[in-house]
Amino acid sequence: MIYSPRIVVGDTETTGTEPRNGDRVIEVGFVEIVNGFRTGRHFHTYVQPERSVPPDATKVHGITDEMLVGAPVFAAIVSDMMEFIGDSPLIFHNAPFDMSFFDEEFGRLALPKIDRSRVVDSLKEARSILPAGAKAGLDALCTRYGVDRSQRTKHGALLDSELLADVWLRMTGTGGLAHGFGPTTAAPAPEVPVAAAEDRRPARSHPPEASASMMRLEPSRDELDRHSAFVEEQVQKAIWTSLAPPAAPSPRA
């Protein structure tokens, strides 16, 4: 288990499963968690792999050669990617897979590889928490922890990072919302029209959103009442009651 004020959750999509045999990264997504909440800041880009995407891989993530026309190569995005990651711990689901691809991509550029000591494998963590034999894939974890995965018709680096971030906070009990505090309903996501295939050319990776910020939470009346009831039932003599200032004397008639 890790705790850090800032955590980055990531995922990749690739042309296959064997980076040492020429498979390459074609999509990268990272999302930010600060103090137990997703902040809305993210890093996402498609990547030109300088090779074709096999049909079997497209069946998994839906990414085609046409979608990668005009996408930046890995060398063009690595600096922005690492700036977003910073020195924060990294969480990947089945981390050895993603890290093997990053190792190859960094190696091609003669860059220092990402320090494995800062990488957490959420798949391994899930298997240590769940009952023996329980399914620990991302879909199964979303179902177990009540994370809406209805938009996950195919794998996607940014979407999967967002889902994994929510699963991580609930699975590890490190998220504020996982404890029942804060907003009870999420604001609906804006509708984004589905573009035609020829219009889905990937844009260059963008910097973190400047407008994103930590949400400010105010306790609801129900939460305040539950807190008062808890204190009354569980705390025999609350220390703060002895520190309360004496009541002011009634004014003389």
Number of helices: 8
Global mean pLDDT? 82
How much of the residues is beta strand, in percent? 5-15%
In angstroms, what is the radius of gyration?
Answer: 23 Å
Largest sheet at a glance? 5 strands, mixed
The total count of strands amounts to: 5
Strand order of the largest sheet: 3-2-1-4-5
Q: What portion of residues is helical? A: 25-40%
Overall 3D form: elongated
SSE succession: EEEHHEHEHHHHH
Layout of helices and strands:
Elements (H helix, E strand, L loop, with lengths): L5 E9 L10 E10 L2 E10 L8 H7 L12 H12 L4 E3 L2 H14 L10 E3 H8 L8 H7 L12 H16 L48 H14 L4 H4 L11
In short:
32% of the residues lie in helices and 14% in strands. It has 8 helices and 5 strands, in the order βββααβαβααααα.
Can you describe what's shown?
This protein has 253 residues and is an alpha/beta fold. Helices cover 32% and strands 14% of the residues. It has eight helices and five strands, in the order βββααβαβααααα. It has helices at 55-61, 74-85, 95-108, 122-129, 138-144, 157-172, 221-234, 239-242; strands spanning 6-14, 25-34, 37-46, 90-92, 119-121. Strand 2 and strand 3 form a beta hairpin.
